[in-house]
Amino acid sequence: MEFSSEPPEMAVPAQPPLKKNIFLKNPKIMIACGVVVLAVGFSLLTWQVYAKPVTDPFVRKVVQIVPYPALSVEGTTVSLKEFLVEYDSLSHYFASLKDQAVPPPEQLEIAIADTLVNKLAIQQLAKQYEISLDEGRVAAYYQDILSSQESEEAFTQNL
What Å distances lie between residue 153 and 19, 25, 89, 140, 159, CA to CA? Predict the structure, then answer.
């Protein structure tokens, strides 16, 4: 008997060719992956907007684009963008007062939320009871306020 130093050849089963980029060729899988990526991205963006303070520059930029709600009163929603307008107005008002301390941001946010809720409630009640604004009385009230001020420019600047 003769032995060979070479190993016997084994039959290797033929494998089907690999399907390369099966995910990239199937449009349903691509769309599903895209939707998942967008949903995760939007969720992270939303989490960051509500986790960070309203004074954060990132939050300010995002709410200019996406209308995130700040609060809702009986179906009427106030966006974070509108909330920030009120916040900035109140912050500038307190900054203009030289002899008074500015309240902490948390107190400002609570005061603004209360103010916005009151405004919405007044608007809803006025609509419900069909109450309209008397422009003549508004003009007379405005003139009364102006008469107690040094000038209209000073009043508008303070306002």
Answer: 75, 67, 18, 18, 10
Q: Is the whole model's pTM more than 0.85, yes or no?
A: no
Q: Give the pLDDT score at 67.
A: 94
| Chain centre to alpha carbon of residue 114 | 19
Cβ(109)–Cβ(54) below 8 Å: yes
pLDDT in tens, 88-109: 888 888 877 777 777 888 888 8
Three-state helix/strand/coil letters over the chain: CCCCCCCCCCCCCCCCCCCCCHHHHCHHHHHHHHHHHHHHHHHHHHHHHHHCCCCCHHHHHHHHHCCCEEEEECCEEEEHHHHHHHHHHHHHHHHHCCCCCCCCHHHHHHHHHHHHHHHHHHHHHHHHCCCCCCHHHHHHHHHHHHHCCCCHHHHHHHC
Least confident of 7-16, 29-38, 46-55, 118-127: 7-16
Residue pair 79/70 in contact (Cβ under 8 Å)? The answer is yes
Angle at 85 between CA 64 and CA 39, to 5 degrees: 30
How far apart, in whole angstroms, are the C-alpha atoms of residue 86 and residue 70?
12
